[in-house]
UniProtKB/TrEMBL annotation:
Alphabetic keyword roster: Hydrolase, Magnesium, Metal-binding
Reaction catalysis annotation: diphosphate + H2O = 2 phosphate + H(+)
UniProt superkingdom: Eukaryota
GO biological process: phosphate-containing compound metabolic process
PROSITE patterns, per database record: PPASE
GO cellular component: cytoplasm
One example GO MF annotation: inorganic diphosphate phosphatase activity
Classification of source organism: Eukaryota, Viridiplantae, Streptophyta, Embryophyta, Tracheophyta
Species the sequence originates in: Panicum hallii
Uppermost EC category: hydrolase
Enzyme Commission code: 3.6.1.1
Full protein name: inorganic diphosphatase
Cofactor entry: Mg(2+)
Similarity-based family: Belongs to the PPase family.
């Protein structure tokens, strides 16, 4: 009887050890898969609660070391470029604020750093500023990318600028660096910056009092008269004080319809998917 019990116990122990090893092996495989997918910006997106996201500062503003990371509800860093989902449902998109309206520090996502935090741009080791304040909240659509290897036949054959798509949010509230807003696109401007295509999507936050009144490019002119011209002129001229030529705009120098803007968003989202799946060489871009 004792021998049978011992044998049974031994068998049970072996089963437990084997099962534990199997579970550890499976857990290891899952962990590896998660790490692999996280590097491609896929897994976190599926689980992310955008309402819990918040900016977290590191360092002092207006210094070379200053960074604004995006963290989730558990305090874990996520990439504002790769991990925040582009679409919020019902024709609404997530927008990451890099530069609050009425400010001049040239903040941007560090596309070559892990977790792509927001930092102040530099030139020759010096912090960059616009020559005057930008009058709208400015930032990017996550999970988009303007492919520098792809020529756009609609816009003079210009190639993408190797960055996420830029967004100009025209609402009345001044947002903060790192805010994640829900917006609806209204129009697009095809800026050509030193030969590179640099789309500007005009959008409005759903929280704005006038959001329900504007649904396409013509509504912008009706309820925000002069704004589209002001946006175009601001981005056309901001480099002139530094002795550089004015930027140009394709598509007849005019803003597009909402339908065309949505086409731009879709195409650049597809380019981003190719990038993170490594169908296109990433170069120095961080996919983590």
């Amino acid at each position: 009887m004792a021998t049978a019990a011992t044998a049974s116990a031994t068998a049970a122990t072996r089963f437990t050890l084997l099962a534990g090893a199997g579970l550890r092996s499976r857990a290891s495989r899952l962990s590896t898969a998660v790490r692999f997918q996280r590097q491609r910006g896929l897994t976190t997106t599926a689980l992310l609660k955008t309402a819990d996201l918040r900016p977290k500062e590191q360092g002092q503003p207006e210094t070379l070391d200053y960074r604004v990371f995006l963290v989730d509800g558990g305090g874990r860093k996520v990439s504002p470029w790769h991990d925040v989902p582009l679409r919020a449902g019902d024709g609404v998109f997530h927008f990451i604020v890099e530069i609050p309206k009425e400010s001049s520090a040239k903040m941007e996502v560090a596309t070559d750093e892990a977790f792509t935090p927001i930092k102040q741009d530099t030139k020759k080791g010096n912090l960059r500023y616009y020559p005057y304040n930008i009058n709208w909240n400015y930032g990017l659509f996550p999970q988009t990318w303007e492919d520098p290897t792809s020529a756009n036949s609609d816009v003079e054959g210009a190639f993408g600028d190797n960055d996420p798509v830029d967004v100009v949010e025209i609402g009345e509230r001044r947002a903060n660096v790192g805010d994640v807003l829900r917006v609806k696109p209204l129009a697009a401007l095809a800026m050509i910056d030193e030969g590179e295509l640099d789309w500007k999507i005009v959008a409005i936050s759903l929280d704005d009092p006038k959001a329900s009144l504007v649904n396409d490019v013509d509504d912008v002119e009706k309820h925000f008269p002069g704004t589209l011209t002001a946006i175009r002129d601001w981005f056309r001229d901001y480099k002139i004080p530094d002795g550089k030529p004015a930027n140009r705009f394709g598509l007849g120098n005019k803003p597009t319809s909402k339908e065309y803007a949505l086409k731009v968003i879709q195409e650049t989202n597809e380019s981003w998917e190719k990038l993170v799946k490594r169908n296109i060489p990433a170069g120095e871009l961080s996919l983590a």
